[in-house]
Amino acid sequence: MRSVLDAAEAELVRLEAAAPNTWDALWGPLERLMDGVKRTWGLVTHLTAVRNSPQLREAHEKMQGEVVAFWNRLGQSRPLFDAYNRLRDGDEWSGYDQPQRRI
Question: Under a CB-based contact definition with an 8 Å cutoff, are residues 34 and 100 in contact?
Answer without folding.
Answer: no
